Amino acid sequence: MSKLVSHVVPEWLIVPNSVIESTLVVVLLSIVVIALVRRIKFVVKVNKIPGMPGGLSLIGNVFTFLVPPEEFLNRLTGYVAGLQSSGPILRTWTGPFAFCFLFTAESFEVILSSTKLIDKSRHYNNVLPWLNTGLLTSTGSKWVSRRKLLTAAFHFKILEDFLQVFNEQSQILIQKLSAALKVRNDFDIYPFITLCTLDIICDTAMGCNIQAQSQSNSEYVNAVQSMREIVAARLIRPWIQPDFLFQFSNYSGRQKEALKILHGFTDGVIRKRKLERASHSLDKVTALTNQYREDEFSPKKKRLALLDLLIDASKDGEVLSDLDIREEVDTFMFAGHDTTTTSICWTLFLIGSHPHVQVRINEELDCVFGTSDRPATTTDLNELKYLECCIKEALRLYPIGPIIARKLSEDTVIHGYTVPAHTTVALMTYILHRNPEHFPDPELYQPERFFEENSRGRHPYAYVPFSAGPRNCIGQKFALMEEKVILSSILRNFHIRALDRREELILLNELTLRPRDGVRLHLTPKQKHFKLNFN
Ligand code: HEM
């Protein structure tokens, strides 16, 4: 063989095996040394930042936070808030991963206003099997182009179109609550609101009516619920976060089943919508917006859905494939219903715990609607200013995303400390919103804080329930509009009283910050032409 080679390759080009081997060893060693030096430099840089006490070498503060789910948020926020006096930024290690907790408006501004620091942390990976890299999870040029495209979908003209859905579904909700009242006056309102917002998001995102409020046991509704639970479970159980370990857990099979239903459903809706559009020769968004038409899922006239905009923008697969469309529709399904449900429930709980706030809302509702039971118009919603302050103040005390996490793509100076690239920064909105400098007596529920005259001069990053900057919540106007319609419908029909006290509630930071045992309310139907006065 070597004779054969020597015929083909000149003698001087043949390198002895020993030289190849030693070169390989040198190259490998150099790679290891470079990686080691980089790692040491990284650790030294991170450790210059004021750290959390009690960390162990190699595993850091992992055990500090290894607590049952219902204790996690309390433990974390209690710990970080208690250490605020040691500095405006706090570093910890969980295993090999460096974390910095941020809780000041100034540090939030550094991260959130940046157009470069847009990478989500690895904690978001748990939703990838469902959402793939849609708007919530994507980064780089993909996120930039999708954000531009999808911003059009939240144009106020399109939102006005959705008002009809918000009103229709709120009406069904009132019927469901009235029916429930025939059995008992106190109950957990959470499941009622969940099904209502699920119906709304299906209709507005996909243009189909799944009638979750009427058939709460539908396959799709159950699959959404399953995924919600699985993603939440992975968030608080680090050992099932890596996919190769997750596949051995009990959740894996359940996730496969749920995804089959969820993706199958979205695929089906996209296919049918495309066929419909082809048969109607509807390829322009404007044509669709102006032309309401029959929908196979519902006998009623239908309006434009977010899906239509995506199909339109897809340019027959040139710009977006069916898979691209699906990941965005799924993202809206995920980001657009649990969030509003939780926010509505917290607002109801806080209004129901503060009778004087409810009296003021009733006065506003009387002023706007009188005794009429007509649906809400855009003008009505603009006039519900006090109700809006109630929603905002609830989001201050209970931000739906109490922690937002980013992975730094470059070294970043925060409060004079250089936080190196690859560190995860955890923005603690829950603590930020309780800073007495911005919100005196921070634990009090005072919607008046958000009156224009009281908000003037407040740091622009002191209140960020929808995040802020280029990666803020794309659905915030949608959310506020939907919440105002649902809340005003409930409060026009019922007087509410919260049955639990705030200090008794156990908070769970799953996908959203929610009370573990729901929101128990006592509902009393309002008499027509009879004004309730609780002074
Ligand atoms: C009260 C209701 C809501 C709250 C409090 C809320 C809050 C947030 C927050 C804090 C973020 C940033 C998350 C992060 O950076 O990790 C976000 C992003 C997002 N939200 Fe919302 N959200 C709400 C409702 C909605 C609705 C109704 C939709 C859609 C219909 C929606 C769609 C999205 C999307 C797609 C993103 C990702 C945006 C991007 O990265 O460009 N959200 N939301």
UniProtKB/TrEMBL annotation:
<feature type="transmembrane region" description="Helical">
    <location>
        <begin position="49"/>
        <end position="67"/>
    </location>
</feature>
<keyword id="KW-0503">Monooxygenase</keyword>
<keyword id="KW-0812">Transmembrane</keyword>
<dbReference type="InterPro" id="IPR002401">
    <property type="entry name" value="Cyt_P450_E_grp-I"/>
</dbReference>
<keyword id="KW-0256">Endoplasmic reticulum</keyword>
<keyword id="KW-0408">Iron</keyword>
<protein>
    <recommendedName>
        <fullName>Cytochrome P450</fullName>
    </recommendedName>
</protein>
<dbReference type="InterPro" id="IPR050196">
    <property type="entry name" value="Cytochrome_P450_Monoox"/>
</dbReference>
<dbReference type="InterPro" id="IPR036396">
    <property type="entry name" value="Cyt_P450_sf"/>
</dbReference>
<keyword id="KW-0472">Membrane</keyword>
<keyword id="KW-1133">Transmembrane helix</keyword>
<dbReference type="GO" id="GO:0005789">
    <property type="term" value="C:endoplasmic reticulum membrane"/>
</dbReference>
<dbReference type="GO" id="GO:0016705">
    <property type="term" value="F:oxidoreductase activity, acting on paired donors, with incorporation or reduction of molecular oxygen"/>
</dbReference>
<feature type="binding site" description="axial binding residue">
    <location>
        <position position="473"/>
    </location>
    <ligand>
        <name>heme</name>
    </ligand>
</feature>
<dbReference type="Pfam" id="PF00067">
    <property type="entry name" value="p450"/>
</dbReference>
<keyword id="KW-0349">Heme</keyword>
<dbReference type="GO" id="GO:0004497">
    <property type="term" value="F:monooxygenase activity"/>
</dbReference>
<dbReference type="GO" id="GO:0005506">
    <property type="term" value="F:iron ion binding"/>
</dbReference>
<keyword id="KW-0479">Metal-binding</keyword>
<comment type="similarity">
    <text>Belongs to the cytochrome P450 family.</text>
</comment>
<keyword id="KW-0560">Oxidoreductase</keyword>
<dbReference type="GO" id="GO:0020037">
    <property type="term" value="F:heme binding"/>
</dbReference>
<dbReference type="InterPro" id="IPR001128">
    <property type="entry name" value="Cyt_P450"/>
</dbReference>
<dbReference type="InterPro" id="IPR017972">
    <property type="entry name" value="Cyt_P450_CS"/>
</dbReference>
<feature type="transmembrane region" description="Helical">
    <location>
        <begin position="12"/>
        <end position="37"/>
    </location>
</feature>
